[in-house]
């Protein structure tokens, strides 16, 4: 699994992998480490997966997956479309969060309808500060 994000996504999926291992599941997740530098554009995630596949190969029942955000302010539709086509050609799974993985996680714990209209708009605008603030509220509640 190759993730666009360097923090939230790898931590989440590594937690799933660790829990799966602890339960003795047949599911084995390998989360690739974040890329060095600020190489988080979807094309770099695809390059990382291509390199991993070339170096280590895959077994008959293995699946390779890219996890990227839609991030309207960062990635144009054309770029996302090209990544989706490449994943289809290479038989990679593509998990695309829209607008952001952080929001997807938060929505598992938050009743959006209980928020004020202003809070809802801030979250849907995909402002990292609003998402991080709301996530911090839930993580530090005790």
Outline the structure in words.
This protein is mainly alpha-helical. It contains 6 helices and 3 strands; from the N terminus they run βααβαβααα.
Strand order of the largest sheet: 1-2-3
Order of helices and strands: EHHEHEHHH
Number of helices: 6
Give the overall average pLDDT: 83
Which structural class is indicated by helix and strand composition?
mainly alpha
Most strands sheet: 3 strands, parallel
As a whole number of angstroms, the C-alpha radius of gyration is 17 Å
The proportion of residues forming helix, as a percent range, comes to 40-55%
Uncertain stretches: none
Shape: globular
Total number of beta strands: 3
Quote the distance from N terminus to C terminus.
32 Å
**β-sheet strand percentage:** 5-15%
Keywords:
142 residues; mainly alpha; three-stranded parallel sheet; 3 strands; 8% strand
Topology:
Layout: E1 2-3, H1 8-22, H2 42-56, E2 65-69, H3 77-90, E3 93-97, H4 101-106, H5 117-124, H6 128-140
Question: Could you give a short description of this structure?
Answer:
The protein is mostly helical and 142 residues long.
